[in-house]
Amino acid sequence: MEHVHTQTDALAALYEEMHQKTKTGMWVMLAAFLALSNTLEKPIYAMIVPLLYFGYDMLLQRKRFALVAEYTSKDSARRLYQVHVLIGILQYRALAGLIVWAGDRPNTYFLIGLVIVVIPFYWLCRKTLEFISRKIDPTYITEKEIHKAR
């Protein structure tokens, strides 16, 4: 029983680190995107920032889920990684679609699209990710559960 408790604690620490790095990376990416979109002649070129972040995050996720495989099965870790990649692609496409749509419109259109479409879509993606992740790996711990336990 001690081994299971230690494994759960180790997974909780690993998931907490994953969530924290992802959250920090998202804020850095958003700040870089906003800075570039306001300074570039064509704000649409700033889409490279979320794309670079997405590529970087996928590499980090791959490493993290390789560590998760040490505590769960390799198959579960691979499937978790695939789900995270798919959700990441959907989120990037939503943001890219908004950027393209609002490219030659006033900034208020971008903000309205962000608030009405992208943010709720990201929330829905997060809930879907949590649901599917729990189906794949019952030991999956959400960010909310990590903070509730502390």
Describe the structure in your own words.
Keywords: Membrane, Transmembrane, Transmembrane helix. There is one protein chain. The chain has 150 residues and is an all-alpha fold. It has one domain (2-149). It has 5 helices and no strands. It has helices spanning 2-39, 48-71, 74-101, 107-136, 143-149. The model is unreliable at 1-5 (pLDDT under 50).
Short description:
Keywords: Membrane, Transmembrane, Transmembrane helix. This protein is an all-alpha fold.
Overall morphology: elongated
- Unreliable sequence segments: 1-5
How many distinct helices? 5
Strand content: under 5%
* pLDDT averaged over residues: 77
- How many beta-strand elements? 0
Task: Determine the structural class based on helices, strands and strand pairing.
Answer: mainly alpha
N- and C-termini, Cα separation = 22 Å
Number of domains: 1
Which series of helices and strands comes N to C? HHHHH
Largest sheet: none
Oligomer: single chain
Radius of gyration: 17 Å
Helix content: over 70%
Topology of this structure?
Layout: H1 2-39, H2 48-71, H3 74-101, H4 107-136, H5 143-149
Helix pairs in contact: 1-2, 2-3, 3-4
List key phrases describing it.
150 residues; mainly alpha; 85% helix; elongated; disordered N terminus; transmembrane helix; membrane; transmembrane
